[in-house]
Design goal:
With about 350 residues, this protein is an alpha+beta fold. It contains eight helices and six strands, in the order αααααααββββαββ. It has two domains: about 170 residues, no CATH class; about 110 residues, Histidine kinase-like ATPase, C-terminal domain (Heat Shock Protein 90), CATH 3.30.565.10. The chain has a four-stranded antiparallel β-sheet, with helices on one face. Strands 1-4 form a two-stranded antiparallel ribbon. A hairpin with a 5-residue loop joins β5 and β6. The radius of gyration is 33 Å and the shape is elongated. The two termini are about 30 Å apart.
């Protein structure tokens, strides 16, 4: 018997939304503080800090739109490069720029968020050097005006925060990787168990077919009249095995679809009914299915399998709002004789 897939708890969607909302509020507060302090518009900055913060902010806004890991690396590298170039420009002209002009709060905070995305989702081979560039951009900004007591204190505090953000992101990445490996291992074990069960199930029918064929061969010379009934029994056994492989596939595929697509599902029922002339299975689940305009390839494949076996297949919502999959297959030969007889 195969066991259901072990589900490893993930961070709830509401918690992720809350974290993103808090981060957005913190970034907005940092930008407002910089505007009030004149960090971007002060005559000493000459627009460098405003340009750098705008570029980093644009990268930050674009991050949720990225789907590929390389996109985070490119965006992070661009943000780090712009910030480091700005810090170098500030260092060159630090005599004309006040010390507090380089202490903007928005840009370091935005760079830390970009660092978290790169360390969490970027390819491992390239994420590490880009993360180091981002960390350097955060830490070196206060030192761009010169190594002083105040700038050293700010740089030390930013170093601690950078280490915490990078460590948390890498930890989350490792946890997710371990979760995927465990899920893959469990699915592989389930497939092996399923293949073993299916082999044992079909072996019973195949053994019966072999024995009946041997019996028909043994009596063919002495009792030719017994050959035709023996062949008919072999045909019936094969039809029964075909119906049992198909219904087993419908059940497994339906349960897999429920696990993947049924949101907030709490109850699943599987009903199997065998009569002298037919066998049927009904799988019902609650929850909300992610319905699309076109049926998935899994349902299409099941429909084709059942139809080719001479049966009927239906997958549709019920009047109570549940999702139901039903399949029926005949257990009779073309001549009309019942397989179960």
């Amino acid at each position: 018997m195969w066991s259901p897939l072990l589900r490893i708890p993930a961070v709830p969607g509401r918690a992720v939304l809350l974290l993103r909302s808090l981060a957005a509020c913190a970034l907005a507060a940092a930008a407002w503080a910089d505007v009030r302090a004149g960090t971007f518009t002060g005559p000493a900055s000459q627009g460098r800090l405003a340009l750098s913060a705008t570029a980093v902010g644009a990268v930050l806004v674009a991050l949720p739109l990225f789907k590929e890991g390389w996109s985070y690396v490119y965006a992070g590298g661009a943000a780090a490069t712009v910030s480091l170039v700005c810090s170098a420009a500030v260092h060159v002209s630090h005599a004309a720029i006040g010390v507090s002009s380089a202490y903007g709060a928005f840009e370091p905070a935005a760079l830390l968020v970009v660092l978290a995305f790169v360390a969490r989702r970027g390819p491992a081979a390239c994420a590490a050097p880009v993360a180091l560039l981002l960390a350097a951009a955060v830490v070196l900004r206060p030192l761009s005006v010169g190594v002083q007591e105040g700038s050293l204190a700010v740089a030390f505090g930013l170093t601690l925060v950078t280490v915490l953000v990078a460590g948390a992101s890498v930890t989350a990445r490792m946890v997710e990787a371990d979760r995927r490996q465990r899920a893959h291992r469990i699915r592989l074990e389930q497939r092996i168990d399923l293949a073993r069960d299916l082999h044992d199930h079909l072996a019973h029918h195949v053994a019966g077919i072999v024995v009946q064929a041997q019996g028909a061969r043994a009596v063919a010379a002495r009792r030719p009249d017994m050959v035709l009934p023996a062949l008919q029994r072999i045909e019936e056994t094969g039809a029964e095995a075909l119906a049992a492989a198909i219904l087993h596939r419908v059940t497994v595929e339906s349960l897999t679809n429920i696990r993947k697509h049924a949101r907030h599902c709490r109850h699943v029922s599987v009903h199997v009914r065998v009569r002298p002339h037919e066998a049927a299975v009904r799988i019902t689940s609650d929850g909300t299915a992610r319905l699309t305009s076109r049926p998935g390839y899994g349902l299409k494949d099941l429909r084709e399998r059942v139809t080719l076996g001479g049966g009927t297949f239906r997958a549709e919502p019920t009047a109570e709002g549940d999702w139901q999959v039903r399949a029926r297959l005949p257990l009779t030969t073309p001549g009309g004789r019942s397989v179960a007889s």
